[in-house]
Amino acid sequence: MKPMPGQTPRAFWEDRYRDASGETSGRPSTVLERYAQDLVPGRALDLGCAKGDDAIWLAQQGWDVCGVDISEAALSIARRNALRRDVADRIVFACHDLTVSFPEGRFDLISAMFLQTPFEFPRRDVVARAYSLLNPEGLLLAVTHGSAVPWSWSRQDHAFPTAEQELNELGYNENDAQVAFVGSVSRTATGRDGQTASVLDNVIILQKR
Asked: With bands split at pLDDT 50, 70 and 90, how would you rate the model's confidence at 154?
């Protein structure tokens, strides 16, 4: 799905989720589950929460969660899913355009899964602002696409950066953060129409000093 000429980011994502099914896999992101399952629950921020699977999983593990998305249509689906899974009391869903505003407060875990868009997006600034909201010893999980699925809006010959290049692009400062992990992992992606493909994800995990 590509933007229409002149379409704003908010309108694009509203259209995408307004037409979407409320059904989800109910499973969290692989990276989130792998690195958060053994953490002591605290306060978590899920950026780009979409239909809410990651936020709901965190709440089920005992976290108090703030789920953020630019689309109210996506948040409506996420709220209904949280109610069905009996964790609505542990999650606050809030609409934010991250280029303009962020939720208030500080967090022990921040998940930034696939903050990529067909629009111009200041990802470095957004991730840096998210990192500034971490409590000491808190984790930032940042995951980006390392390759494209055939149904993606990205050109199939697009040269994706490596995880190490992504880390450098974020302006990592070793005096402020410890790299817990940087690298690429493979997974099977499923499209809106049930199609599947093997893809690479770039994973960066920083722990605040």
From this structure: low
